[in-house]
Amino acid sequence: MGGRAAAICFVLASTALAEDQSHIGFEPTVLVGAGGFAPSAFMSSWAQGERKPSVAIHALLVYRVFRPFDIGLHVAHQWLNVTGLPDGASAYSSAAGGGMIVRFHPLSLAHIEWIDPSIGLGADMFAYSRQATQLPPDLDTEVRSAISGAALPLVAGLDVMVTEGFALSASAMWSPWFLAESCASQGTALPACQATSGAPEHYFFVGLGLRLHLRFVS
Question: What is the mean pLDDT of residues 10-17?
Fold first, then answer.
């Protein structure tokens, strides 16, 4: 009797494991949307002009290691719209970041598959923003400014399955940026850098995109 019960338990465990294996795989997500930094005295002062929100691209290159969890890389590039420059001046400004991220998918515990909300926490070990400003009247004079540090993105996502390996994705992100250094240079001069401390700056992003589910071994 005990042997039969053990055999039944083994079959059930094997079935559950096989079912979970179908969810294991590489799940890249690419999102395009709007993002930028909350207004603050420092974010208005580290470079000329004011940097307004603009288009951003975020990629989550994660691997679903278990049904409710995935882990992988987060990389992002944010363009910033610079306003408030002197007449005749122009500027290019952007921000970028990258690091690790872990996400939790609560509905997967209930075997709900057609819709997949998630929450995640990341650690972007490199995060920086830079701006190149061309000054009038001599547009050959360029001022380069940059800030760098680390960030902790908190991500909320919602994926709606279209096919077994393809989903539409929506995501919102809030990320405190802990700045460590700011640098500036003009023309061909070497950059002058100084330590930066204080309260973190705040980055926000909302975007839509696509998620794939790729299995390399069946």
Answer: 43
Sign of CA dihedral 140, 136, 93, 203: positive
Tell me which long-range contacts 36-43 makes (C-beta under 8 A, separation of at least 24).
Answer: 36/78, 36/80, 36/203, 36/204, 37/80, 37/95, 37/177, 37/201, 37/202, 37/203, 37/204, 38/201, 38/202, 38/203, 38/204, 40/201, 40/202, 42/179, 42/196, 42/198, 42/201, 43/201
CB 191 within 8 A of CB 217: no
Per-residue pLDDT tens over the stretch 159-189: 999 988 899 999 999 999 999 999 999 877 7
- For the segment 22-29, the average pLDDT, to the nearest whole number, is 86
pTM of the complete model: 0.85
3-class DSSP string for the chain: CHHHHHHHHHHHHHHHHHHHHCCCEEEEEEEEEEEEECCCCCCCCCCCCEEECEEEEEEEEEEEEECCEEEEEEEEEEEEEEECCCCCCEEEEEEEEEEEEEEECHHHHHCCCCEEEEEEEEEEEEEEEEEEEECCCCCCCEEEEEEEEEECCEEEEEEEEEECCEEEEEEEEEEEEEEEEEEEEECCCCCEEEECCCCCEEEEEEEEEEEECECCCC
- What integer is the mean pLDDT of 59-69? 93
Hey, what are 71's tokens? Answer: 């882990």
